[in-house]
Request: fold
Amino acid sequence: MLSRLASASLRGLEAEAVDVEVDLSRGMPSWSLVGLPDAAVREARDRVRASLLNSNFEFPLRHITVNLAPADKRKDGSHFDLPVAVGLLLASGQVYVENQSGLPFMVGELALDGRLNPVSGVLPLTIFAQSQGFNQIIVPLANAEEAGVVQGIEVIAASNLLEVAGHIQGKRLLLPFEPSNATVETQDNMLDLKDVRGQHQARRALEIAAAGGHHVLMSGPPGSGKSMLASRLPSILPPLTDEQRLAVARVYSIAGEHTRSPMSSIPPFRSPHHSASDVAMIGGGQIPKPGEVTKALFGALFLDELPEFKRPVLEVLRQPLESGTVSIARAADTLTFPAEFQLIGAMNPCPCGYLGHPSKPCACSAAQVQRYMGRISGPLLDRFDLRIHVPPVEHDELTKMQAGESSSAVKARVLKARAIQYARQGEVVNARLLPTALEEHAKPDAEGEALLHEALQKFGLSARSYHRILKVARTIADLAGSKNVTSEHIAEALQYRGDNA
Reply:
């Protein structure tokens, strides 16, 4: 007998249709699994056989052919276990349904005792099922919340193969999963900027970065608060829209990471160790998966101890910083992942960290400092909109200082500035304005133009630097509620160019 079930394979962040065909024929007992399966799919034979026997079903002693069509596209992942097992039960007559075409979409990995283990990529698979007209999807219980994000399709959470068999036969129907609407993360349980004392310029730069979506590089001695400031950026970023939240949830689903709830509207914050490889940073692998730049989508990627990252790892950031996407080319295919994020870098001014410190002498030679700074290329350095020095704060001064302004107060100004940007130029932040739009929306007044021209002449700024100064000035003007970019805004923007190079 022949059975056929609908399934899908994952390609990047999308899903592609796959038909799981199971045929039982006469001949020596054997099992053929065809359709370009990878190792995880081929191993389904052993998992399915054991789970059938341990769930009190019979394993058919026939010639079994399982075809994953279309046969010319590679299939990977363990989520094919459940449809293959159900296909065997249907083909052998142990489970009977009147109309196989009316079966729900189903995904899941089988344990040897018949339990359903969670799989990665459930969210894009659920979106695909809904787009194909399925009104019901069966998923492992641990994946139910993830699948429940998608509207317009019933999510059936099953614990084991027996429950699935009973449900599709109508003998023991499972109730649809009801997603929780509880807020997972709130402003109350996030790190707050009020914990940061002093560092007024750094706090101001962080506010500008949040308002305009700019990249920031902080330089200062150890213990000056660089990491503390960076970790509080998500508390002042605007919450994700429903569309953005779904896009971020899809990335984490494909990556197989469950570190954040799919219902969370808090922008992601990624902080990889400086030993990360270029593949971990940009994505890829034998089966291409999203890297850190994609996992930071609509949020922040924080690179602490920036010069300690390998040079190739830093250089691969240049293209996604400009385009907001990253393309991973392989011999058989090319995949594109989104990579729209804010880069926050932190570094010491020298190898020992105390160059320019008011009380601790630097032990580095000029050559050592030059080699250390040379680990960051000019083109990458040029992509930071704001480059600031974070000075040390003495302990005596620290105890006298009052708590800083809270994140909620700063966030209110950020949201107001974002609203001005979106009303003026659509859903585009200032940091991503194209040159033509920049000329239209960020053209400075006569005094500002003269000041910027003088800076270009004096410091030899590149065209990219010129545009980035205008973008920062436009954000500063938006925070001030000013319709025009003035010399005052240009002057402040120039202060955040670090060495003005």
User: Anything to note?
Assistant: The chain has a mean pLDDT of 91. Residues 407-425 form the longest helix (19 residues).
